[in-house]
Design brief:
Mean pLDDT: 80
Strand content: under 5%
Distance between the termini: 48 Å
Largest sheet: none
Low-confidence stretches: none
Shape: globular
Helix content: 55-70%
Radius of gyration: 16 Å
Order of helices and strands: HHHHHH
Length: 110
């Protein structure tokens, strides 16, 4: 498979999961799909400045989109996982850097 076909497959799976999760408006869908494409293309850490530099929208558009829009990431990831994992039991891992400071300080000291 070429890189282009893999990227197209990734985008189609993200889009189908996005549409199955919630009733979203078109501007969010366009910016979300562009962001998913950029997550595959930009190495290392990604910030809004890089999204604005390499994406189709401005930095402020990405920033506003993810700060003001409520999106159910759990359901989105669950939709993608359910297509590819067939067992009854599934596990979800949470990256520690995304946990709040108070959460990490209480769990680490316990």
């Amino acid at each position: 498979m070429t890189k282009e076909t893999l990227l197209m497959q990734y985008q189609s799976e993200c889009l189908s999961a996005l549409k199955s999760v919630a009733n979203i408006h078109k501007p969010f869908e366009k910016a979300f799909m562009d962001t998913m494409k950029l997550f595959m293309a930009i190495p290392d850490r990604i910030n809004f400045l890089q999204l604005g530099r390499y994406g189709c929208f401005s930095e402020q558009t990405y920033r506003n989109l993810f700060e003001h829009e409520t999106f159910d990431w759990f359901a989105f990831n669950g939709s993608i996982i359910s297509k590819h994992l067939t067992g009854k039991r599934k596990a979800i891992a949470i990256w520690k850097s995304w946990a709040s400071v108070s959460l990490t300080s209480t769990t680490m000291n316990a």
